[in-house]
Design goal:
Structural class: alpha+beta
Low-confidence stretches: none
Radius of gyration: 17 Å
Number of helices: 7
Distance between the termini: 5 Å
Largest sheet: 7 strands, mixed
Strand content: 25-35%
Length: about 200
């Protein structure tokens, strides 16, 4: 079995890989992300490839390197990760009562001796509808501590300022159309189907 390397420090992606019983190790990509595209699907493909390539080029052994990137988009416009509570409030307020899209790009690179031998990439979309929210509800959510990091907040380090697997998903997500795990950060079933013939 080839070594599988996840080029991501995301705890949510790590948990999904463990849940799917895919043996792997983590090597976090230290690359500087450069965006030259505009469409959300093209952006996540570009960034996931950059992350995977940065690790593959430094990998001497024969391995499969997986890079992933997730964005939230509303009306075709990408929303990044909020820098502070006020920005998180603005993001969530713009999402409430509407349908938005979550895109995850995945790049699967087979490599050996620091050279990429094969490349397989895909972008997955999930539509997410959020219930209307009062401003007080939004602020109450923003104040919730991250269950995995007592010193952090739920909205931190999350595209669009929310996590679907958290209080937000339990209270305010009206409907999703597509892969739930894609919103968490990795379309794990589709990834596994692409991996199983390579492992």
């Amino acid at each position: 079995m080839k070594k599988i390397i996840l080029a991501s420090g995301s705890p949510r992606r790590r948990e999904l890989m463990i849940q799917a019983q895919i043996p792997f190790e983590i090597r976090i990509s230290q690359c500087e992300e450069r965006i030259t595209k505009e469409r959300p699907d093209e952006v996540v493909l570009e960034l996931s490839a950059q992350k995977a390539e940065a690790v593959a080029w430094k990998t001497a052994e024969e391995a499969i390197v997986i890079g992933a990137d997730t964005v939230v988009a509303l009306d075709g416009r990408i929303m990044g990760k909020p820098h502070d509570a006020e920005e998180a409030f603005v993001m969530i307020k713009s999402l409430q009562g509407k349908v938005h899209q979550v895109w995850t790009g995945v790049s699967i690179l087979e490599c050996k001796d620091g050279k990429i031998q094969t490349r397989q990439c895909f972008a997955q979309k999930t539509d997410v509808e959020v219930y209307p929210m009062k401003e007080e509800e939004i602020w109450n959510y923003i104040e919730i501590n991250d269950e995995n990091d007592p010193t952090g907040k739920e909205w931190e380090d999350k595209a669009g300022g929310y996590g679907i697997q958290s209080v937000f998903g339990a209270k305010y997500i009206k409907k999703i159309n597509g892969d739930y795990y894609n919103v968490v950060g990795l379309p794990i079933a589709r990834l596994y189907q692409n991996l199983k013939e390579k492992m």
